[in-house]
Amino acid sequence: MAGEPQADCLFCKIVSGDVPATVVRETETAVAFRDINPQAPTHILVIPKVHHPDAAALAAAEPAILADVVREAGEVAREEKVDGTGYRIVFNTGSGAGQTVFHAHAHVLGGRGLQWPPG
User: Is 107 tagged catalytic?
Assistant: First the structure.
């Protein structure tokens, strides 16, 4: 059921503590941790503690929690000191967009130039 932990979900296992992660922030609704394959000097994932397959599904079911994820992404950027130089918040949705874990999550990227368009 949407919102419930999924036994086969890596991020649900991180939320439960069954899989270790380098956590940098945690709130009642979200967890932020360092990406194991960073694409920038700062690359942190912010995930909701509830399971939804992508950001659109999370927004439809629990918009306040999506707002918490985005707010935490901003706090991560501030704590990592990339808020002054610029950072990107990315939600990949679907395998064609690069989503590999189907649990909604935001990538916070910064610490280097981020060109446009992304590619």
Answer: no
Distance CA 3, CA 41 (A): 32
pLDDT for 44 equals 98
Q: Which three-class secondary structure state does DSSP give residue 87?
A: strand
Catalytic residue from among 43, 51, 103, 105 = 105
pTM of the model: 0.95
Give pLDDT tens digits for 71-94. Answer: 999 999 999 999 999 999 999 999
Token pair listed for 104: 């909604």
Helix (H) or strand (E) holding 61: helix 55-61
**How far, in Å, CA of 75 to CA of 69, rounded?**
10
Are the CB atoms for 104 and 55 separated by under 8 Å? Answer: yes
Burial of 84 (0-12, 13-18, 19+ CB in 10 A): exposed
Helical (H) or strand (E) element with 109: strand 106-110
